[in-house]
Amino acid sequence: TLRREINEKKRRRGGKRGRQFFIEKDGAAQVVIVGLTKVGKSSLLSSITNAKVTVSDYPYTTRTPVPGMFQYEDIYFQLVEAPAIMRHTANERLSNLTIGLCRNADMLIIMVDLSKDSVGQLKVILTELERGGINVDKRHVKVEIERKHRGAGLRLILYGRLHGSTTKDVEELLRSYRIMDAIVRIHGDATLDDVEEAIFGGTVDKPALILANKFDVQGAVQNLEALVSFVKDSTPVIPISCRGSVDTSALGKEIFRHLDLVRIYTKEPSEKERSPKPFVLKKGASVQDLAKKIHSELHEKFGYAKVWAERLPFGPQKVGSYFILEDGDIVELHMR
């Protein structure tokens, strides 16, 4: 029968599947490590995560993405080593799959080799990312549109400012595209064009760090200075040496800061101590967002919350569902 033929074709296709490039997200965020070949991506992943990595002297050793978990204080980030970017090959299969990994990631770590022309390497990487529709912190502008259930309305959260427009203009633009219920987070000096780009999703903005490896080799200082001069203040540059020891605390702090995350600790009404493990949310998240992440029933039957925080005049303070949380807050949720 036709159904049997279709199932047989599916079975045959399933047996011939190629390399698996999709990596399911884990931890607080997924961070993809991208760069040209032989810049130290495998060495970095091997030294700071639990990943089983093949470190080789041969170029293009990594042909499939390799994930590993990186601990920063009391949370974990998922670091994924991507196959090397190749010059002028954004339309070929391997580079397309690497670009796909980067588009799906929460953040990028761009690695360059300080023993060579670091600026030239960065230009190649940025060009290939741009061809794949990825902007890397060019103006520190990021617009996130989180769709909400019907009746929630529009809520704008500004971490920067609007250039040449007002919040009313943004709301009118969103409604013109039939976006009536959403939380819109705007980072940096954003324009209406930036908001419109976010609506269509053609180009994505990714927060990024540049790790400049092999800082211990001859000529590295000059290459580092040229790299810092080239990027100016657009993207942080961190010099490291994978042969030595990587300052994991400093790296974790930068990843956490650039992802705009907050750690929220919960407390049961019957307990004296807070939970040891935090919930990780985006900066600007409310008590309502926390309740929703914990359990749908808690979100639907939310009554009130008690919050302990250093910025509050006293603690605990009784708050409603739209109270904005900050890193380190302790929250006790109550259902009605």
Throw out a few tags for this protein:
single chain, alpha/beta, 10 helices, 26% strand
Brief digest:
With 336 residues, the chain is an alpha/beta fold.
Please, could you describe this protein's structure?
- The structure is a single chain.
- The strands form five sheets. A six-stranded mixed β-sheet has the order 2-3-1-4-12-13, sandwiched between helices. A five-stranded mixed β-sheet has the order 15-14-18-16-17. A three-stranded mixed β-sheet has the order 6-9-7, with helices on one face.
- Residues 12-19 have low confidence and may be disordered.
- The chain has helices spanning 2-15, 41-48, 93-104, 118-131, 167-176, 192-200, 220-231, 248-258, 287-294, 296-300; strands spanning 30-35, 66-72, 75-81, 107-113, 134-136, 142-147, 154-158, 161-162, 182-187, 189-190, 204-206, 208-213, 237-239, 261-266, 279-282, 302-308, 317-319, 330-335.
- Helices cover 31% and strands 26% of the residues.
- By secondary structure, it is α/β, with parallel strands linked by helices.
Describe the secondary structure blueprint for this structure.
Elements: H1 2-15, E1 30-35, H2 41-48, E2 66-72, E3 75-81, H3 93-104, E4 107-113, H4 118-131, E5 134-136, E6 142-147, E7 154-158, E8 161-162, H5 167-176, E9 182-187, E10 189-190, H6 192-200, E11 204-206, E12 208-213, H7 220-231, E13 237-239, H8 248-258, E14 261-266, E15 279-282, H9 287-294, H10 296-300, E16 302-308, E17 317-319, E18 330-335
Parallel strand pairs: 1-3, 1-4, 4-12, 5-11, 7-9, 8-10, 12-13, 14-18
Antiparallel strand pairs: 2-3, 6-9, 14-15, 16-17, 16-18
Helix pairs in contact: 5-6
